[in-house]
Amino acid sequence: MLRTILLGPPGAGKGTQAVKIVEKYNIPHISTGDIFRENIKNETELGNRAKAYMDRGELVPDELVVEIATDRLTKDDCKNGFLLDGFPRTIFQAEKLDEFLAQRGEKIDKVINIDVEKDALVKRITGRRVCKSCGASYHVVNIPPKKDGVCDLCNGELIQRADDTEETVLNRIDVYNKQTKPLVDYYDKAGVIINIDGNKDLDDVLADIVKGLGK
Ligand code: AMP
């Protein structure tokens, strides 16, 4: 059983580490950003409501996010735990998540807090490319695909996310510092924080996370 959250600024490597963590612990990866992007692609009402906020690098309103996240957590595959990536992002969301879990006699076991210096974040995000088909994440310099513009895993096309431009990234980092960083204290008080130095190599970061999770 592992109910856990990945916390960290945009570009900290949450998505990349998430793929490895869920494989190792056999729990579902729940990314609210992925859920929104999927809805935008399919032009759903939810997608339409979220798009303008996402394009500006701002947060989608709390009520909307809480509803889609808690709805996802009621699914069968979350019975043995889950990895939340990009949720919660505000104290309000964290409190609603705690309430939702408490009603079910559950709670968050661990929160993985990945920290990375700001300069590195901007370089990581602007160089990021993601697979249009399977969502796998690459970087033009740090994690290049074997063949330019093509996903190693599924041969899908690699694209730049609409909100990965330099201007939007700076806003997203600002939004993180103002609205999401207070969650580090929130979960520290609950005694569940694992602090991870995300400036290290991907493999070392993963090893530190596994050590911190202690399973
Ligand atoms: P991400 O893929 O986690 O970087 O999320 C991309 C964008 O989706 C964010 O910049 C927000 O606009 C929106 N988003 C994702 N998760 C949340 C959340 N928990 N609260 C508010 N907005 C979110």
Keyword list:
single chain, 215 residues, alpha/beta, 3-stranded antiparallel beta sheet, binds adenosine monophosphate
What does this molecule look like?
With 215 residues, this protein is α/β, with parallel strands linked by helices. The chain has 9 helices and 8 strands. The protein has helices at 14-25, 32-41, 45-56, 62-73, 91-103, 118-126, 166-180, 182-189, 202-213, and strands at 2-7, 29-31, 81-85, 110-115, 128-131, 137-139, 158-159, 193-197. The strands form 2 sheets. Strands 2-3-1-4-8 form a 5-stranded parallel beta sheet, sandwiched between helices. Helix 1 (14-25) crosses helix 9 (202-213), helix 2 crosses helix 3 and helix 6 (118-126) crosses helix 7 (166-180). It is globular, with a radius of gyration of 16 Å. The model has no long low-confidence stretch (mean pLDDT 95). The site of adenosine monophosphate has 19 residues, from helix 2 and helix 3.
Radius of gyration: 16 Å
The 3D shape can be described as globular
Total count of strands: 8
Uncertain segments of ≥5 residues (pLDDT<50)? Answer: none
Q: Count up the helices.
A: 9
Mean pLDDT: 95
- Please identify the oligomeric state: single chain
Estimated share of beta-strand residues? 15-25%
Helix content: 40-55%
Strand count, sense and barrel status of the largest sheet are: 5 strands, parallel
Neighbour order of strands in the largest sheet: 2-3-1-4-8
Structural class designation: alpha/beta
Q: Span from first to last CA?
A: 10 Å
Bound molecules: adenosine monophosphate
In N-to-C order, the SSE pattern is EHEHHHEHEHEEEHHEH
